[in-house]
Amino acid sequence: xxxxxxxxxxxxxxxxxxxxxxxxxxxxxxxxxxxxxxxxxxxxxxxxxxxxxxxxxxxxxxxxxxxxxxxxxxxxxxxxxxxxxxxxxxxxxxxxxxxxxxxxxxxxxxxxxxxxxxxxxxxxxxxxxxxxxxxxxxxxxxxxxxxxxxxxxxxxxxxxxxxxxxxxxxxxxxxxxxxxxxxxxxxxxxxxxxxxxxxxxxxxxxxxxxxxxxxxxxxxxxxxxxxxxxxxxxxxxxxxxxxxxxxxxxxxxxxxxxxxxxxxxxxxxxxxxxxxxxxxxxxxxxxxxxxxxxxxxxxxxxxxxxxxxx
Amino acid sequence: xxxxxxxxxxxxxxxxxxxxxxxxxxxxxxxxxxxxxxxxxxxxxxxxxxxxxxxxxxxxxxxxxxxxxxxxxxxxxxxxxxxxxxxxxxxxxxxxxxxxxxxxxxxxxxxxxxxxxxxxxxxxxxxxxxxxxxxxxxxxxxxxxxxxxxxxxxxxxxxxxxxxxxxxxxxxxxxxxxxxxxxxxxxxxxxxxxxxxxxxxxxxxxxxxxxxxxxxxxxxxxxxxxxxxxxxxxxxxxxxxxxxxxxxxxxxxxxxxxxxxxxxxxxxxxxxxxxxxxxxxxxxxxxxxxxxxxxxxxxxxxxxxxxxxxxxxxxxxxxxxxxxxxxxxxxxxxxxxxxxxxxxxxxxxxxxxxxxxxxxxxxxxxxxxxxxxxxxxxxxxxxxxxxxxxxxxxxxxxxxxxxxxxxxxxxxxxxxxxxxxxxxxxxxxxxxxxxxxxxxxxxxxxxxxxxxxxxxxxxxxxxxxxxxxxxxxxxxxxxxxxxxxxxxxxxxxxxxxxxxxxxxxxxxxxxxxxxxxxxxxxxxxxxxxxxxxxxxxxxxxxxxxxx
Lengths: 310, 547
Fold this sequence. Notes:
heterodimer, A: mainly alpha, 13 helices, B: seven-stranded mixed β-sheet, 16 helices, globular, cell membrane (chain A), membrane (chain A), transmembrane (chain A), MetI-like (chain A)
């Protein structure tokens, strides 16, 4: 197990380094740079020569030295300064991360609840029309654009019914609508995979055996089928993280939340390389960590996998 | 929910609202004071309360000379004062922190006498030393601190402190625009400590210490800025009817990027005032009984600026044809509202030195086609004209700050297909734009405008050493602009500005479209709304009527 963990951690470090290097190179290849974008502001009346001087002030000795310097900074936890605002990138991440963490974790939990309710209700219901209707809900959810859903929810619940304010309001009030907006599309793939996995488990021969022994439908579903169906669902749940990050960009913009999504959007607009680099590496790190977690959970949930891992 | 108003006002209330609306429109842009008492309401200003103001974008770098960006100006206009006050109605320069001033004959020496007893919010004195330190940076920049010079100061040489309340500025060439320059948003005065900070630190709001009626209370970066009234503020411009501290206790400036969330929050009573109401939302706001403030920006109009350096449009007749083939009225009628007047010159009709050129700016597609024929451009197979194997295809970037820029350009492109000209519209991706915008071959046309209530605005826009939107190599144009900028006599200066407007049109450098306003929406109970000369809100005299 220890060896397994070590090798997985080594792979994770490799993935992070690759993500860092790939985005570093790509960001260098983009036309223009943040210094040009920022200082070309005509109100500041700078000549191209002066802009070149500023660039020289920010730049390192050579591209390779720059890269080494930045990488070293990342290893020691110093992500440099945002060129756009002049604040340390760490500070900006520290401000934005809690906002997104609250939003994303609440949305993920809600998505799991929605998914479980849909999948269970679908497999438990005996009427085939109801089952069909429930199973088509995920397809509907995944085709709803988060942008449109967010605005619709605001229009109905905040502007018409006046149940939750979007401006001001407590932290909980501020979370309700964005969490719902983000949870709906995330719940779709989880619900779909869980429902399908449940069907597959039902088709296995051990189910009629338990039924013949007199187990109730609910007992079979809860104690035997669901437990076996959870593995593929866990894998998909780990993968929805990407959706969570992408969805938070849209959701945070619609709801005016100052989280990682908004930070990313602004950094991209201003081509603020240090911030973009930090966001990419952060996202990669979370991805790697969650997948590592899923892999570690597998043998715990399914004893049959213990041998394979060791 | 606080501050909510009923969705559909009862009949008497609606009457009151309508009357208030009329009253406010009448008083709109009032001379820096509170709007007159609204009919049907209690005209006595109410002290206290919090104004919730929704901004479209978060502020960027708050170094004062970069305050022109509206989200920056909306904050800095509340926390800083200026040497002089430009009356937004008359555009006259009036006393503020400077009680009086003398200017020598050729506008190379300006002497200012300062008001006594003015302090910055950190307790330090606003005296001649502090003012000198501010303008030395705005006029000359500071290489060591990486502080760039400001666009609104020309020909600055040095400052000279005569006594604690008197100082003189020296210029190496006449600088008649300087007096107005001391009133602009970027000329806000900050403490000596603030002005001696390096650029990166002056970018941050928490470091900006001014003498204005409000101070920073709290900031959540990219989300919210809370300002609180200064209790000891007692140096409003003398022409303001309201003196002493601000009426409001607090202002909450909340960044709300989504257009319809801003408007919905306003009409559902969650916010008191919003900036940037889109043209298509104006009616919604009015129908809900709210007030639209479409404030003029008094500068170079929203338009297309054609670059003679591009090989396809180096012929003045081709550029003229493009202008004749552009229907500005159709653009305004289709996309905008009465808040956006059709352009009648290069400058707004409220700009200093404006001359009416509406006779020249006609829509004449037949003549446009004839000019293009004469210039040797023949119709190609796909409907786009060709000459020497080259298609008449011109590049332009969507302009982020301009309202409905993409839609405007799409409509122009549609109009130009009738001329056999293809307008290639590119999205405003910051990196590509920063590089290609300076390349006339790739970007034949610039879409933009610039606001400032001084004759120098036209120089800012066109001079090859300023914004240089047409990437000018026209020596005559540069000379005319320099002459305008150095002309101390106002009537001769205005005549020069008129000559420049004619010249720019004759040379086909500009296709003026409309006079771009800043559009705000406010609840009917928000009174005393005022703006500086270029439409940045001034919350000093704003108060909330009891509902």
